[in-house]
Design goal:
about 300 residues, alpha/beta, Rossmann fold, 2 domains, six-stranded mixed β-sheet, four-stranded parallel β-sheet, about 35% helix, globular
């Protein structure tokens, strides 16, 4: 009898559920759908580009198992890269601001990554600068999720086609918070190729808001993979609205997610008030369990 080719954990990245919101939309002719990226093995949408960046770099011969990889991260990418490095046999050094949640730090360490912290004041800009300095000293290769085309490629080849198929080509609006912008770039490219009328809506924190995983980038640090023309509309997310919607998703829809996902659904609900007969897809970036220590679910 021939041996059965069992799948590995890497085979379960992607193909995440798309579910309809039942209560938050209220009475409406629109359909609001949530793409549950927390169902990926390491718990976030970042599993897709993390695996893609390492696989493609290895296929090109840029790296080989046993090499050291470096990346600046605010959390989810770091966890995903730590998982992908463990799967494929690489050492991983991750640099992140020290105010990120304890669950995120512990998850990276559990996958075997070395964690290097910078101050909250230095932020992601400081983390990115340190990653570049470490690479210049020969301490490893920076994958550079902010400029690596294998990041949006993962969403062009995976997330976008999944949404198109799951909505049977009926999607009218795609809503995504923006961090590296890889998700929105890859999905926009794919969906616009299928139907140029699909509206792509990007989200960023309003001035003063601190929402994990997304940023209002200073011009000098704007991800080089970002192409402004691929986004039809950008909406600023208020901190309180994102947190309130996140808690309502858990208590009224049974969807346990993080703050940026709450912001994504808040924006989808705001859009819905202006539309009729629309099919709006919002990205649920991750799971809520990695934010419990912050107390955000207890704040009401």
């Amino acid at each position: 009898m021939a041996a059965f080719d069992y799948p590995t954990i890497a085979d379960f990245v992607g193909n995440t559920p798309l579910v309809r919101l039942q209560r938050l939309p209220g009475q409406t002719s629109n359909t609001i759908l949530a793409k549950l990226e927390g169902n990926n093995p390491a718990g976030s949408v970042k599993d897709r580009p993390a695996l893609s960046m390492i696989q493609q770099a290895q296929a090109r011969g840029d790296i080989r198992p046993g090499d050291t990889l470096i990346e600046a991260t605010s959390g989810n990418t770091g966890i995903a890269l730590a998982m992908a490095a463990a799967i494929m046999g690489y050492r991983m050094k991750l640099i992140m601001p020290d105010h990120m949640s304890a669950e995120r730090k512990a998850s990276m360490a559990a996958f075997g990554a070395e964690l290097i912290l910078v101050s909250q004041e230095e932020g992601m800009e400081g983390a990115r600068d340190l990653a570049d300095a470490m690479q210049a000293r020969g301490e490893g290769l920076v994958l550079n999720q902010f400029g690596n085309l294998d990041n949006p490629r993962a969403h062009y080849e995976g997330t976008g086609p999944e949404i198109w198929a799951q909505t049977q080509g009926q999607v009218t609006h795609f809503v995504s918070s923006m961090g590296t912008t890889g998700t929105i770039m890859g999905v926009s490219r794919y969906l616009k190729e299928q139907n140029p009328d699909v509206q792509i809506v990007g989200l960023q924190p309003e001035d003063g808001a601190q929402i994990p995983g997304i940023r209002r980038w200073p011009e000098a640090y704007l991800p080089s993979i970002f192409e402004r023309q691929r986004v039809d509309q950008i909406i600023d997310i208020p901190q309180q609205a994102a947190e309130d919607t996140m808690r309502r998703l858990a208590s009224e829809e049974g969807i346990f997610c993080g703050v940026s996902s709450g912001g994504s659904v808040w924006a989808a609900l705001e859009l819905s008030r202006q539309l009729e007969n629309a099919v709006i897809v919002a990205i649920i970036c991750d799971r809520g369990d990695r934010y419990l220590s912050t107390g955000v679910f207890a704040s009401r």
